[in-house]
Amino acid sequence: MTKPQQKRQKRAWVEYEDNIIINFKTKDRNLRWTEIIKQGNLKGRDEKSCSHRWNNYLRPEITNKGEFTPQEDDIIIQQMSLPQNSWKSMAKHHLPGRAANAIKNRWNRHLKKRHATISDLRRDLLYPEEHLMHDEASDHSVRGDDVEALMAEFASLIPPS
């Protein structure tokens, strides 16, 4: 018989809890979270929340916790356009010092929509006949001022170098 899931109260982490996790993990990286919770007397914390706290905020490898730079944004966008990518690989090889979860959140909250908009505009500019073919009501002609407006909108989405 399985144990019923207890609803866990979410509360902010406090410095002494962070210090307990850091001390235990610094001494023995292979120590199980259940042991850290028990020995460190971390009441109200479970394995998942402790692991998340360590992996995304407290690990010594995470040195960059500030705002993302435009250069980092460019790296994320470039890496996301490749067929083989992972947040962990991006953090390790392309953005050392950043947590994989922070990179994922940056992509999902700030960059994905901008990247999709730029990609859509690029596709429409390079292959206008593709998106016009499905439009039965259109005469499929493009006026010069329409192209200029689209180009101006496209240019406004590209961040300055």
From TrEMBL:
It is found in: Nucleus. Residues 64-115 form the HTH myb-type domain. GO terms for cellular component: nucleus. It comes from Vitis vinifera. Keywords: DNA-binding, Nucleus. SUPFAM superfamilies: Homeodomain-like. This is Trichome differentiation protein GL1. Gene3D superfamilies: Homeodomain-like. One of its GO terms (molecular function) is DNA binding. PROSITE patterns: HTH_MYB, MYB_LIKE.
